[in-house]
Request: fold
Amino acid sequence: MTERETKVYEKRDFCIECRRETEFFLQKKNIVKSIRGRKYTFGITVAVCAECGGEMSIPGLIDKNVQEIDEQYRSTEGLVSIEDIENLMKIYKIGKAPLSLVLGFGEVTISRYLEGQVPSKEYSDTIKAALSSPIYMKDKLNVNRGKVTDAAYKKAMAAADNLESLFSVSEKMLRAIAYVFERLEEVTPLMLQKLLYFIQGIYSALYGKPIFTEDCRAWLHGPVYPEVYDLFRDFKYNPIDDARFALFDGKKDELTSDEKKVIDLVVNTFGVYGGKVLERITHNEEPWKNARKGYGDSIPSSELLTKSSIREYYEFVNQRYGIDTEEGIKAYIHNILNWNIN
Reply:
């Protein structure tokens, strides 16, 4: 089968070159556009005739190209998207006009942004700050309280208070979680807990200090960070699809190169396994087993997994496997799953 044949969709439209209906396929094409005196390269979708290779105009493609250019321009310039603004309204339970006034904008500004107008960098940064920080949003609500109704103020403030208590984990933990989700996209709560534990262990072994300030606990199904458990328990479905997940946006960019290196190591090794396999690994490790001594296999507990016990265990593992490399970690995983780490 030729390369072109693999690209052909079961779709047909009129080709002005062939002067008849032909099959076509979609592919990406780079174009250069000048916006506000600056040139940008955008990747847009084009329809290509399967017979003559010419570009075709098909219904809906122009609208798709406008959307692609808009999204790429905003990303390049670091501007908020329409989806970001919609998420901001959802998580703070606030309408377009009240949100505009609370943020210190004109009353119709948010409405215009939702219709496609691109915000200035200054206004975009204000929206981003409100989206990423309930504390910042609460400050804005208090400063501009007199501009909105009591009902709108109380509803948004209650949502901000709830978010502030919900996102009570450290900034470092939020950054790591955001980066894990970016790398893996789909992560179950069980899997996330184990990955955070492995990140803590490997980072502390390699750099002599913990990456997270939070304490880990030896729960029945393995190591757990209770604050993270409480956070994701409130997410009723896939966390990344929840509007409140927008509070994680941008957090990953604040990680150091060493922190990203360790998370990459964990994601590329432990991250290929599901939560139950990762649970088996932690159940075979000394920190969890020692913390669970005296408890049966079915007895819940919340015993502390000390940071020192995690660090010392992974220092031991590092001496034998070299867990600063993916190959070393993979060798460790293979052996621990077979109850052999000596």
In short: DSSP finds 16 helices and seven strands in the chain. The two ends are 51 Å apart (CA to CA). The longest strand covers residues 20-35.
